[in-house]
Amino acid sequence: QVQLVESGGGLVQTGGSLRLSCAASTRTFSNYAMGWFRQAPGKEREFVATIRWNGVYYADSVKGRFTISRDNAKNTVYLQMNRLKPEDTAVYYCAAGARTAWSPGDYDNWGQGTQVTVSS
Predict the structure, then answer these.
(1) 105-115: string of b/e by CB count within 10 Å (b at 16+)?
(2) What is the pLDDT of residue 1?
(3) For 63-80, what is the mean pLDDT?
């Protein structure tokens, strides 16, 4: 079991930037695929980005605006979000899984989420 704690959410205007962080409590952090998902009110949880040793992947809706990265020495994964839009408003969740995947069901460990609100 991996404990994940997200931080960095908040309120930002359209076009602004935020950086989310997710700290993981595991000695084998580098082995995990780390993903970011988001869930807006009334909508299903959706894939945003994932990173593992073999690559990074993004949802089409955030490609070119968001950047996922990780620091294995700090057991932390980041999501840099630029040119934010009102439709990016959601609770953002960090997840850890055994393999690179795009479905929430493929991740076994989840953080509590952090709210991101983009005002128009």
Answers:
(1) ebbebbbebbe
(2) 87
(3) 98
